[in-house]
Amino acid sequence: KKNIPPPHVDLTWEEYIEKAAALTESSIPGRMPEIIGAVGVDPTIIIWESGGYFFNSNGTRCTLDSPQVIDAMTFYHRLIHRDRAEPVRSQSKSDDQDFRLKAFADGQIAMLWVSRRALPFLRREISRRQQGNEVPLSIGACLLPRFATGNRYVNMKIEGVGINRSSKHHREALSFLNFLTSPPYYASFVESPCGKPASMDFNRDEFLSDRRCPDDPAINMVAVKCWEYGRLRRRCPFIPYNQVEREFHQARIKIAMSPNLTRDEIAVLMQSVTLKINQAIQKAIERDKTLQRLYNTLNSAQQSSD
Known about the structure:
Helix content: 40-55%
Strand content: under 5%
Mean pLDDT: 85
Order of helices and strands: HEHHHHEHEHHHEHHH
Number of helices: 12
Shape: globular
């Protein structure tokens, strides 16, 4: 519609910001744009690309107060409030995945950060439009943006299936694992939340192809490329993962909703989050001697390697 070329596969932040601004259509300042240029930036990616981490290498200390993380969150604040490359949270319902996917399918969002789990919904939407008289939906994919002179990272998650040693139903469990390697299960990939596995071979397998989504092969190749940039988030063995997520999420929302924050104020906010998480770690190891031994062992190993 706007004759704007799709993003390059090797997308940079500069191009991302430029395209997000060009694709945004807003007739009333301060209100939700009629078309949102881009939605869904993940600050974790910016933190990694800025050289920061949630924890030190052995997981004993939160490092969200590092200069690299503060730089990253300042850049995230700039994306929202200066560059307008990410809408204010209240405008985009950014935590509502169904809303975002529907808005994307309806043309109200031009670029959307989303995993391959969105493909089943988008395939159904493509099929529905093909049967009606609506404007056809065509989708594409590119890699997450990177800084022009920096590395790219993709937030990866690993899932696996095994048999618990204490299981009383080894034979049944083994039968289930055999099913996971069978053709009927392969066929379910087409409709599964993850879509087809990220493999070049699957683009040549008619059994797994989905004719409703002609863009699938190109999207699958981008997913294959993502493995080169995959990174797992460092974990802390002393406190629950969701506790860390909750504290970070609250800081992220405050940054997204506060247009006048300075870098120094963002630093104070991240220092507060870091302090809360490190205090939780300290309380955990004081309550549990096993965790305390693990904590001491990890710190000793870190000091030896240093």
